[in-house]
Amino acid sequence: MRTAPVSLFLMLAACGSDMRSSEDRSSSAPDVDGGVRAHDGGSSTTTAVADADADADAWVPPSDGIPQGLAPCDEAPYHSDFAFVEDKIFAVSCLNGCHNGATPAAGMSLVAGLAYASLVNVPSQHEGWVRVMPGDSPASMLMVQVGGEPGPELEGFMPWGQPRLCDELVDAMRRWIASGAPR
To answer: Which long-range contacts (CB under 8 A, 24 or more apart) does 148-157 make?
Structure first.
């Protein structure tokens, strides 16, 4: 019964992916032909570029390890820092007329440069709660407001009138708070 191994070999050879060594599995920039290089089945365009100068088109991952061009929800798992929270969450979802200007909602400005002082160790309008309690996301009203922790009964989740934040963004805030809410 020699046909089964031959059939399996032909199937793997046609696919190609299982027959390559780990050396042949390198990839090019993610925006070039889906990251496929010439020696692993890439298109003729990628082949021409790779043949011209293999070192010149070698994709170098960013030094911070975060792939480029991700949407905020896809980038969020890489973050637990206030700069990300301020730039990708507050600036996008909270400054649409609510937490900015001369009279921000709840007296809480989430404008870059002012947000930290408006949040960390600041009592909430909900009695017994703190807006952000460093190291304790369940005790942080910010997490309750975005639906990331249980707490007082609310009319809905922030941001008002917008889609609820994705779980990944909420988790990035949770990690920032849990790490002590560093500036």
So the answer is: 148/173, 148/174, 149/174, 151/126, 152/126
